[in-house]
Structures are given as C-alpha cells and as structure tokens.
Automatic annotation (TrEMBL):
<feature type="compositionally biased region" description="Low complexity">
    <location>
        <begin position="1"/>
        <end position="10"/>
    </location>
</feature>
<protein>
    <submittedName>
        <fullName>Uncharacterized protein LOC113794884</fullName>
    </submittedName>
</protein>
<feature type="region of interest" description="Disordered">
    <location>
        <begin position="1"/>
        <end position="20"/>
    </location>
</feature>
Amino acid sequence: MYPSNSSSTNIDDDNQSNEELNSMLAQCDEIDNQLIKMIESLSSNLDKFNKFDQMVEQLNQAETKLLNFSQKLDKLFSHHNLSLDLIDIEQNQIDNDDD
C-alpha cells in the first residue's frame, strides 16, 4: 500500500541492474581489448615466423648453389691435376727421347 516506496524500490532495482550491466559491459570491453592485443601479437609473431621460413628457404637455396659450385671446383681441380699429370708424362717422354 505504499506505492511510492514500491516505485522507489523498482527504480533502485533498475539502477542496480543498469550498474551491473554497465560493469559487465566494461569488463567485456576490457576482455575485447585484451583479445585484440593478443591477436595483433600473434599476427606479428606469425609474420616473423613467415620471414624466418623465407630466410631458411633462401639459406637452403644458397647452400645448394654452394654445393654445386664446390662440385664444379672439384671437377676443375681434378681436370687440372690430370692435365698436369699428362704434361709430366709428356715431359718424361721427351726427356727419355733426348737420352
């Protein structure tokens, strides 16, 4: 029978509900901001990993080129040594013919 008191209680309940909702919304906003920061950090780390993978691939390509170059050098030295051996043999034959 106290309508003003009941009305006041309803307003107080509504105010408390609004405050709780505002508090929950603020917490949701904070969580959202933290998630955004985490996603940005993960994205940045992913970019770093992608760059790292690219660097590894470039190093692998460089290693392959270096191995190919090394094999060519080995063949060149082998050919050079064979040529020196042939020159020595020819020189020995010339020396033997002179005797």
